[in-house]
Design brief:
By secondary structure, the chain is mainly alpha-helical. It has a domain at 20-231. 83% of the residues lie in helices and 0% in strands. The chain has 19 helices and no strands. The chain has helices at residues 2-54, 57-91, 96-129, 136-161, 165-221, 223-229, 242-274, 285-306, 308-329, 333-359, 362-369, 378-403, 407-442, 459-478, 481-511, 517-536, 540-543, 551-579, 585-595. The protein starts with a helix and ends in a 6-residue tail after the last helix.
């Protein structure tokens, strides 16, 4: 009798812990999703406000190159550190204080030297890679962000490891708010690109200090011990030492470097390869640099829009990472498989819901958000959005593999994809560049090349001829922006598709899990429905064509029309999912269990 009672009590206790985990995980997803939505809102304000305040695609292009270059290392620091610290703390929360101290020492030996190294290398990066020495000062100043991110990521990793998702989300929201106000404010009052970078640096320093104080107080109060009492963490007696943490950290950083390189390779190579003139046009070196900045501004604006689906899945990976880590550490294969399949399903639905309306409205959205110059990238945006769908699934798969304790595998997968991207971008852009050069030189009267030698032409005439030739060249070169951008987007889409397939193949072989095939078919059905609707719904720019709207009012109305069309497509997609049975009663119950707290008896 006693044995049976004990068994019932244990079973009930286990079920309560599991239910509590579901609710806590779901709420974690919701609060981090809220933080990411705020990230999207503030990011949109920044990326729309800066081109307006700068007043030039060239200046926006300089800003994108500086911030994307530093972002390559920033994301290495924040993602690598966050995942490494979150993993070891989720496995052994009782040792959180010791592990945080070890991570602090590692960052003093790793994060700070990386920041110093980037500052010293800035002149070389600006001059030799991007062929624009004027960027070196801003790049050097931005190196402070690397050091600040190194410690901020450590503190957020602690919060993620003990599943304190609300505090993690609060820090993300605070950081994004400070960064947006700082960057836009300093540019608005006249500090230009340097002001935008200074706003970023200031916000990073402030959030590193705030998060450090928060975590120090939590460690002092023993917040991590509460996670142990609630059943979190592994039961194994195996301990994670400083060397294990360092090894995991370095592997995750290698993976993250390749990941962020994959996200930026097209932009960097577009700027670099279009800024170098051929020998016969060497006199127009300044024009090449200026036009390449414009290319970077156009392409960077499209990147911001195309990455929205990727930002949506980050919230899911933040929550699932410690769960996968804990389940695999305990060698719970069934639970691991269940987590993987469920994660892929919800990620696929979320990615499709955001990406499909973008794909079918890319040209309208670019035209509504930016000046007419930016329409040069409209054709590439659809391809870039398809690429980011592949990348988002690739990122989810890589996070699962890393959470399962295989960061070396994800590092190799990302490195392979980055290699494919770099190779294809170089190949496609090289071919396009040769075609453009030949086209410009062969166009009669398109470019008036002055002869700078000879006594017959005075210096004044030479200057006038050069000025006219430079203007003609810049205009002729700029016309080929859509071709360059479509080449870069296509190369990147292929590379991200390769990475997606490789990661899914590894997960299937290792864990026997894949995105549910029925979900994939229903998403494809939804895409077909949206394609049909896009054919019959008029272009948003035509909705108010006879109203006589002009100027800023026309922009606002057109943007509202684009948003309305995207909303129609989004609702239609949800209807398809509901009609086909993808959104089930079980899904509604899961949402209810997340939102409603269980009443105490």
């Amino acid at each position: 009798m006693s044995d049976s009672i004990d068994k019932v009590d244990v079973s009930e206790s286990s079920n309560e812990v599991q239910d509590d985990t579901v609710r806590k995980t779901g709420r974690g997803f919701l609060v981090i999703t809220a933080a990411k939505l705020w990230f999207m809102v503030t990011g949109a304000l920044t990326q729309l406000g800066l081109p307006l305040f700068f007043g030039s695609a060239e200046l926006f292009g300089q800003f994108k190159i500086v911030t994307e270059a530093i972002g390559l290392l920033n994301m290495v620091m924040i993602t690598g550190t966050l995942q490494a610290v979150a993993k070891v703390i989720s496995e052994q929360p009782a040792r959180a204080k010791e592990l945080v101290n070890q991570a602090l020492k590692l960052q003093l030996l790793l994060g700070v030297p990386v920041a110093v190294g980037y500052a010293l290398a800035s002149p070389w990066i600006a001059g030799e890679i991007f062929h624009d020495a004027s960027l070196s000062g801003m790049m050097r100043f931005s190196s402070l962000i690397i050091a600040f991110y190194a410690f901020y990521a450590l503190f957020v990793g602690y919060l993620n490891g003990i599943k304190s998702f609300v505090r993690q989300a609060a820090l993300d929201i605070a950081f994004q708010t400070m960064k947006t106000i700082g960057m836009l404010g300093l540019v608005w009052i006249g500090f230009g690109v340097g002001g935008a970078v200074a706003g970023f640096v200031g916000a990073a320093g402030a959030i590193a200090l705030i998060s450090g104080v928060m975590v120090w107080r939590m460690l002092k109060q023993g917040a991590h011990l509460q996670a142990v009492q609630q059943g979190a963490g592994a039961t194994s007696s195996q301990e994670v030492g400083g060397s294990s943490l360092l090894k995991f950290l370095l592997l995750v950083m290698a993976y993250t470097f390749a990941l962020n390189g994959l996200l930026r390779a097209d932009l960097f190579m577009l700027k670099s390869m279009t800024s170098v003139p051929p020998e016969s046009l060497a006199m127009f070196g300044d024009q090449f640099s200026t036009v390449s900045d414009k290319f970077a501004g156009f392409y960077g604006a499209a990147l911001n829009i195309s990455r929205l689906p990727y930002q949506g899945v980050i919230a899911i990976t933040f929550v699932v990472f410690p769960l996968i880590s804990e389940a695999t550490f305990k060698e719970d294969k069934e639970r691991t498989k269940g987590y993987i399949e469920t994660t892929f399903r919800y990620c696929l639905l979320l990615i499709a819901a955001v990406a499909l309306p973008l794909i079918f409205n890319s040209d309208s959205l670019i035209g509504a958000l930016y000046s007419s110059d930016y329409t040069a990238v409209a054709g590439a945006l659809s391809v870039m959005t398809v690429a980011i769908i592949f990348f988002s699934l690739f990122f989810v798969g890589a996070t699962i593999i890393t959470g399962a304790g295989r960061p070396g595998v994800t590092a190799w997968l990302m490195a392979i994809s980055l290699g494919v991207s770099a190779t294809l971008n170089w190949w496609f852009l090289s071919m396009r560049r040769e075609e453009v050069w030949q086209s410009i030189l062969q166009q009669e009267h398109a470019v008036q090349l002055p002869s700078m030698a000879g006594e017959a032409m005075s210096q004044v005439h030479q200057a006038v001829a050069y000025s006219g030739g430079a203007t003609d060249f810049a205009a002729a070169y700029l016309k080929f922006a859509p071709d360059f951008m479509l080449s870069a987007a296509t190369a990147t889409a292929i590379a991200m598709g390769v990475g997606c397939v490789l990661s899914l193949g590894f997960i299937w072989k290792r864990y026997g899990a894949l995105p549910p095939w029925k979900t994939v078919l229903r998403v494809l059905a939804g895409a077909l429905v949206l394609f049909g609707l896009d054919l019959v719904i008029p272009e948003p720019a035509l909705w108010f064509a006879g109203a006589g709207l002009t100027g800023g009012l026309a922009k606002v109305v057109t943007l509202g029309a684009v948003a309305g069309k995207m909303a129609i497509l989004g609702v239609a997609f949800l209807v398809v999912l509901a009609v086909t049975g993808e959104l089930s009663a079980e899904d509604r119950q899961r949402v209810a269990s997340v939102l409603l707290r269980k009443k105490k008896k």
